[in-house]
Protein: PORR domain-containing protein
Organism: Stylosanthes scabra
Amino acid sequence: MLFKPHTISSQILSNYLNHLRFISSLKVVWRKDPELDRAIENDKRFKLCARVVREVLNEPRHVIPLRYLEKRRERMHLKLRVESFLNHNPGLFDVYLDRIKPRTEPVRFIRFSAKLQNFLEEQKRIYQKNEDLIVAKLCKLLMMSRNKVVSADKLLHVKREFGFPDDFLVDLVPRYSNYFRLIGSPGEGKSFLELLNWEPKFAKSVIELRAEEESERIGIRVRPNFRVQLPKGLVLKKDMRDWVRDWMELDYVSPYEDVSHLEQNSREMEKRMVGVFHELLSLSLYKRVPVPILGKFCDEYRFTNAFSSVFTRHSGIFYMSLKGGIETAVLREAYEGDKLVDLDPLLEIKDKFVELLEEGWRQRAEELRLKQEKIKRDMENSATKGGETMSVEETNMDCRRHVDRGRRRAFKSRRKY
């Protein structure tokens, strides 16, 4: 059987090529957003503590010799020594003596404190309470993909970005066999998670749901579209303003819509790609995801090789942070200043963990205060016993010198985080 070759009119081809040339010529100056960078920085210490906890959690019986953990500092991105980390974050671990092998000298081990054990139990309850949300997120990730199939290993890599439990592939997925089928064994590089049944109630994006809510509220149909919030001080050039205006006038393309008929480099495909990124960031816990992680899904979501330029070209929708030397895509509308306002229910886990950390920090601050008061009393007593009664001013000044030295040491330790 002979097939008639597909033909394209010269006018369509000319318009298509002109569009490509115009897109490539558009230049948007990247502008630093200190508030959104600060939002990333604010989570730095919390995430570091969480990494150390996960490292111990992966050990048999959840215990590890202190010196073994010390050798993993680089992997955990821990700049200060483990012993200093434990001193700065009391309440996470208990230190005790045990033998690595029989008939060897006892060495220091660490294990979870009772408070951390209680937190881990609370975390399980929060996951159970939000299981429907986790299933919906997983379905949506598969429904947006090209063939409704995504690499299971890639999903494992992004589980913390979307708030999935560590064991979601072996525990949650088998219990929802009406939605999912796991092919192969995760960890071997050739395992996939397949969507078995399309769920219409999950096939609406955040933007579409928002438009429906506004339509019901005001009684007039509202077109689904993106919210644009240009950063302070950013002024677009005329050609870029015209392009953005025309692009915004295009019909919204749902990330759950079949786009196999669209050309990869068309304006409509870019509209769809921006919609996919918007939905992915909306599904994430912090409404931000490192760009290298998004890049792992180019095949599944039909992203172009130069997909990261979307975040600067559409700087009123996204912000590309360079904080920490890592490109991170941030959804602007989810933040007010440096505060995340679009809160995921699974962030309750973070809130509980931060409460535990802050309790330990308060405990350490109180211990330092009592220690400083003892130093002051000892100095006053020694001065009196020596027959050289110091004035109040001299005593306070000498005490302040001790306190300042302690603060400088503490400051140097904090800088190592």
User: Anything to note?
Assistant: The mean pLDDT is 86. The radius of gyration is 28 Å. The CA atoms of residues 183 and 345 lie 30 Å apart. Residues 206-343 form one domain.
